[in-house]
Design brief:
Elements: E1 2-11, E2 19-29, E3 34-39, H1 45-53, E4 60-65, E5 68-69, H2 75-78, E6 82-85, H3 99-107, H4 121-132, H5 151-163, E7 169-173, H6 181-198, E8 201-205, H7 209-214, E9 218-223, E10 226-232, H8 233-238, H9 241-252
Parallel strand pairs: 3-8, 3-9, 6-7, 7-8
Antiparallel strand pairs: 1-2, 1-4, 4-5, 9-10
Helix pairs in contact: 3-5, 5-6
Bound molecules: adenosine-5'-triphosphate and magnesium ion (MG).
Magnesium ion is lined by residues 45-46, 173.
């Protein structure tokens, strides 16, 4: 479904601070795969997602999506197929709008009149029923401004908003990193549930070794812009946390 071919990306090109990150980088994701992305700080994980969703342009190489080249498509065009959730809970929602207004925007993403002000009774009921699966009581707070929600509630809402428009690809950039351990686990369960329900191909960056082993059906590790480990579901099941940690340590030597 997603093919990155011979990708090259250098920051601060032709300056004294020139920093090559990806050199002849190749990476494929199959339709329906849930890929967990590990790697130390600065290894290129977020940049990889930025190149995929078009926030950054590649210097060289091709990006194909369902056999169509999207290398030069602007990010708003890619957003028709791709949704993203960030580490910062404030990035995925509009704080000054209510829960129901945020959900309405998400449900109408890509449709011509998606800035519709009024939310009618039918869609309020529909939105409330979708919110119940978060199991956080947000369906009781439809008219509360998102600014008044906790980080965990906002992140759950961001996740739901990212999937209700049925994207083909979901990009999660450490989306549980700012949450307490219990909320983080709740969001991870929710992530798995929503990905399966909406059948969305997913790339999830995490620093949590336990989550990398427990979730997803493939795990890759990035280091200095290279894939240094790529294991499928069965191999992942046999991996022990200390083996993955040993990989990290061997790379930083
Ligand atoms: N827009 C940018 N301009 C210049 N340099 C950048 C830019 N984005 C990333 N970099 C550099 O590229 C390298 C990889 O950054 P990236 O954000 O992809 O790392 P990461 O693997 O996501 O790290 P972390 O785990 O800390 O989030 C870093 O050295 C970073 O400084
Ligand atoms: Mg990052």
């Amino acid at each position: 479904m997603l093919v990155l071919q011979d990708i090259q990306k250098t920051f601060h090109l032709n300056t004294p601070n020139e920093q090559p990150l990806f050199k002849s980088f190749n990476f494929n994701v199959q339709e329906g795969e849930f890929v967990v992305v590990l790697g130390s700080n600065g290894s290129g994980k977020s940049t990889l997602l930025n190149l995929i969703d078009g926030q950054l342009a590649v210097d060289h190489g091709k990006i194909l999506f369902n056999d169509q080249e999207m290398t030069h498509l602007p990010s708003f065009r890619r957003a028709q197929n791709i949704s993203r959730v960030y580490q910062d809970p404030s990035l995925g929602t509009s704080p000054q709008l209510s829960i129901v207004q945020n959900m309405s925007l998400a449900l109408n993403k890509g449709k011509p009149y998606n800035l519709k002000q009024g939310v009618d009774l039918v869609s309020r009921t529909h939105i409330a029923s979708i919110l119940t699966q978060l199991n956080m009581g947000l369906e009781e707070k439809l008219d509360v401004k998102v600014a008044y929600l906790s980080g965990g509630q906002r992140q759950a809402l961001s996740l739901l908003m990212a999937v209700v428009s049925h994207p083909k690809l979901l990009l999660l950039d450490e989306h549980t990193a700012a949450l307490d351990p219990k909320t983080s686990q709740h969001i991870m369960h929710l992530t798995q549930h929503l990905i399966r329900q909406f059948k969305i191909t997913t790339l999830m960056i995490t620093h949590q070794i336990q989550d990398a082993l427990a979730y997803g059906d493939r795990c890759i590790m990035l280091h200095e812009g290279h894939v240094v480990l790529d294991v499928c579901a069965e191999a992942k099941q046999r991996l022990q946390p200390n083996e993955l940690l040993a990989h990290f340590h061997s790379l930083s030597l």
